[in-house]
Queue: 3 jobs
Job 1
Amino acid sequence: MSRFYRFMLNFGIVFALACFFLTSPAYSLSTSDTQIAEGELFKLGIEKMQHGSYPEAIQDFTEVIKLKNDFSSAYSNRCLAYLQLGDYQNAIVDCNQALKFTPNNVEAHLNRGLAYGLVFSQSPVCTRALSESLGKMDSTKKVYQAS
């Protein structure tokens, strides 16, 4: 019986090792370390954005851009993080960079328009003009209701 147990033990060890090596992750040799790093950093940035960690997401997207300076999606997502933090000037710069690499990027166009609108709405001239317009609308409304 001891031969049988030894055989079963050896068979079990070989089976376990075969399962271990067959199920271990395989990495393609054609993928460079830089591509892996930028892809992983980009995904981390997206995850941090989803959890509301905008400064950390900006850091991740900045690292991605350092590794690959024409990564349009990194600029576009960093723009969105800047918008969330109220840094509209940097958001506009990033949207412009994203549009430089992908001119038909609808999200970058929308985010840039939003950033311009928010910058404009914070200016004293805009606030005064808006107040005047609302005042004129109110007086027009009163005249219209009176007739």
Job 2
Amino acid sequence: MITRTGNRRTFMLGGGLLLVCVLMVGVVLPSIVSARTLVQELRCLTPGLDGIGGDGWSGKPQINSKGQVVFESDATDLVAGITSGSWNIYLYDNGTLSCLTPGTGGNGANNESFNAQINEAGQVVFCSRATNLLAGITSGESNIYLYDNGVLSCLTPGTGGS
């Protein structure tokens, strides 16, 4: 088990597959219960564009009580156009997977993005060493970013913005 929020659990399996389980509420558990009894919903969040699984590592998922999941991955086939191979931050929200670090060129971060956290309002904060996430942020050092309602901003731009 990776993370737990309310009745939702996220798991990471071999091959970089992330799964979300929604456990049935109010079930009285006997001492031995099969997973089939507990799982109300099981969904793969990283099927890849071909539907058989992403071509890279995906992990460190965080989930809020609304079922929004944020995670990092170096896969190049989770979202169309994201082909950088660097660790990018992804958000799974209401059946849609999107990359929060598309970079200014649209093909993904040019360096690692990591340690994503999501709050109950759906705001995501993460660190990144990428120099192509926002214009003017070019230091290559680890900066802290906030993704809020479709807008990405750097919380640690330094002097002169870099």
Job 3
Amino acid sequence: MHETLACLIVMAAGLYLCALAAACLFAPAHARRFLLGFAQSRRVHFTELLVRIVVGGSLVTHAPRMLASEIFVVIGWILLATSPLLLVLPWR
């Protein structure tokens, strides 16, 4: 169950990044406005950090079953390691 949830989270994050890339290519003004909306409030900032931790943990958990697993483990640990750093930095 835990591994299935990690797989679904990794797939959702991948789809999100693909959609963001498409938006950057085909609607750059909308993508820019969307990206600049991050960390506009304390609540959004902490939500973003929570999502980073969940996706990072899911990458670390699911990476052994992926191609190029070493790369995804490193990316997951980077997300997990940088999230607490962003938590202590001022969000503005």
